[in-house]
Design a protein that fits this description.
binds 5-O-phosphono-D-xylulose, 8 strands, eight-stranded parallel β-sheet, alpha/beta
Length: 215
């Protein structure tokens, strides 16, 4: 059984309260919140006021994915905005170990995301410190992109490393996730499926979330 984290990036922002409440009454395990700064990725999503509004209405744990340069500047702000899990990018953190420690000291679960070109082996020295590793299966910045097939291999390798270490971090996959690849992703070791357009563009998001969870 997979956990599902619908990505709020694909919601109708003019009806954000309605869409968050729709997720509250679904089987979603988390709400995935994408923060983009227009520097680390070529897109800007939203900032603290919108994140706080999501928190105000959500009854689900919030899983924040920071696609921003130097995320260590804002860890406390995201804790205050309601993050339960805070994921930073390997590629955006020169002092990743310190950033992870700070996230944990602030009482959040710490995650690290990897861009499609970044090998999972680069995390070997900090895997035991993490609650989550996020494998990007598209280049970050936009919803609705095509799934990158090499992601299966990365998840398989990361799952092998997890077993070797006896570690218990979760493996999350994000980008182009749908009902055609969800089963293979879980078979290769993914625990949490992030899905944006596949959930929000479906005619019955509740049924879509429930079906993804069955993988
Ligand atoms: O982080 C990102 C994109 O950078 C994702 O969370 C997307 O929002 C997923 O959207 P879909 O590919 O599922 O439409």
């Amino acid at each position: 059984m997979a956990a599902v984290a619908p990505s709020i990036l694909a919601a109708d922002f003019a009806n954000l309260q309605r869409d968050v409440e729709m997720l509250n009454t679904s089987e979603a395990d988390y709400i995935h919140v994408d923060i983009m700064d227009g520097v680390f990725v070529p897109n800007i999503s939203f900032g603290f006021p919108v994140a706080q509004a999501i928190k105000r209405y959500s009854t689900k744990p919030l899983d924040f994915h920071l696609m921003i340069e130097k995320p260590e500047r804002y860890l406390e702000n995201f804790r205050d905005a309601g993050a339960d899990i805070l994921t930073v990018h390997y590629e955006a953190c020169p002092h990743l170990h310190r950033t992870i420690q700070l996230i944990k000291e602030l009482g959040m679960q710490a995650g690290v995301a990897l861009n499609p070109h970044t090998p999972v082996e680069l995390l070997s020295e900090i895997l035991s410190d993490l609650s989550l590793v996020l494998i990007m299966s598209v280049n970050p910045g936009f919803g609705g992109q095509k799934f990158i097939e090499n992601s299966y291999r990365k998840i398989y390798k990361l799952n092998y490393m997890r077993e070797e270490l006896g570690a218990d971090f979760k493996i999350e996959v994000d980008g182009g996730v749908n009902n055609t690849n969800a089963r293979s992703l879980v078979e290769n070791g993914a625990d949490i499926l992030v899905a944006g357009s596949f959930v929000f563009n479906s005619s019955d998001p509740h049924a879509t979330i429930a079906a993804l969870r069955k993988n």
